[in-house]
Amino acid sequence: MSADAPDEATAQLSTPSFFSRLIQSISQRYQKILDDSVPHMTARWLMLLAFGCGYMLRVYILQGWYIITYALGIYLLNLFIGFLSPRIDPALMEDPDFYDDIAEDGPTLPQKANEEFKPFIRKLPEFKFWHSSFKAVIVALVCTCFDAFNVPVFWPILVMYFIILFVITMKRQIKHMIKYKYLPFTHGKRKYQGKESGQAFAQ
Predict the structure, then answer these.
(1) How far is Cα 133 from Cα 113, in angstroms, rounded to an integer?
(2) pLDDT tens digit sequence for 69-115
(3) For site-directed labelling of 117, which of 1, 42, 90, 152 has its Cα 20 to 30 A away?
């Protein structure tokens, strides 16, 4: 056996297969598309709306896949709640050991009017909210191509369950916002005006 045989075997093992290189190439291109789409928020959400309307139209025409639609609605509701929630729950701030535990975990919500302004940091950022929602709609569309997912069900019951769950969840979220005095938006927050205005900050 030649001395070069082990080196050749090692080189063959270290060289990625065609399938691995293909997956890596597709993943890189997909990530590149995602990175390029980050600034185009309006276009992204319009595309999601178009796909969502297409899915609803397909379900309406086919008169089926109500379980998939219900699961999609629950998942989107869960994402929406994460989008409205702060990254750090203000309820945890009432714990005296809280600030010791997150000393290096980043900024938190201001608790007083004269406290330094800190932007609202979402539990689920806008881009991740859109990306997860878009993937969920695509998966739901794919599921409508298979009869195995078309489970017979009385759809008005699912609609009623979803409405009740939506109302209860949003009511709890709104109460949480009122109790801890925060809004999941940046509109109306203090903005720096500069020296020319004569005031450091303006509402």
Answers:
(1) 35
(2) 999 999 999 999 999 988 887 777 666 555 555 445 555 555 555 55
(3) 42
**DSSP conformational letter for 202:** E
The residue type of 138 is I
Residues 6+ apart with CB under 8 A from 199: 193
In angstroms, rounded to a whole number, what is the distance separating the alpha carbons of residues 192 and 119?
A: 13
Residues 120 and 86: beta-carbon distance below 8 Å: yes
DSSP 3-state of 191? strand
Global pTM? 0.73
d(CA 27, CA 95): 43
**Distance, C-alpha 2 to centroid of its chain:** 57
Distance from C-alpha of 126 to C-alpha of 15, rounded to nearest angstrom: 39
Angle between helices 66-84 and 155-180 (to 10 degrees): 0
CA atoms of 148 and 51, how far apart (whole Å):
22
Other Cβ atoms closer than 10 A to 3: 6
Start-end of H helices in 63-105: 66-84, 98-101
